[in-house]
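Limitations
The structure tokens in this dataset are predictions for the assembled complex, not deposited experimental models. Users should treat interface geometry with appropriate caution, especially where small molecules or nucleic acid strands are included. An illustrative entry is reproduced here so readers can see what is and is not provided.
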Amino acid sequence: GNSVTQMEGPVTLSEEAFLTINCTYTATGYPSLFWYVQYPGEGLQLLLKATKADDKGSNKGFEATYRKETTSFHLEKGSVQVSDSAVYFCALSDQSGNQFYFGTGTSLTVIP
Amino acid sequence: DAGITQSPRHKVTETGTPVTLRCHQTENHRYMYWYRQDPGHGLRLIHYSYGVKDTDKGEVSDGYSVSRSKTEDFLLTLESATSSQTSVYFCAISESGSLDTQYFGPGTRLTVL
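Predicted assembly:
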């Protein structure tokens, strides 16, 4: 079946530090991969996505590359800011159906 | 921001009572989804709809039913609420299904005592 595994949180970083949040997936076929972000008290918002192998999604300084050989979609940012504090969710879409599968989320806190 | 509203935003109810949550969209998107969010589980799909009167189950559908009589409204019903259904419920919409971006509503916090 389809599933997404994210690194456990919470993650605490100092401002301007490098961020990596690991995400690996299990899926049949060729899923699309997504990173969503949830700020306190809000719903999820799309951060970036990639629809095929070797695609790189990017937005607001965040990047993730769709690696089919390692079934991974790790999120990275070179220099985090306090405003990046949020919960980050990795997700995949079911190619053959209409369903999304989310990871458990990784909480990030950035301190000044 | 995508036009998605959820009502109510907060609800406290007692075990055994029926509860209906409403999701309303103004984007005319074909697909609508209901998720629940729980610590340690992330988001899990309850039910989804791919058109008026067309719905299907997600991975945690037991104890829930849905209805979609109009494009803009998707209702989630707990026929007889249990404490295990205490959660935050999110509605989402997308234009063309699984390969498309999902847009999420603000959530409904439901407490079942």
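Some entries come with short summary sentences. For this one: The longest strand of chain B covers residues 42-51.
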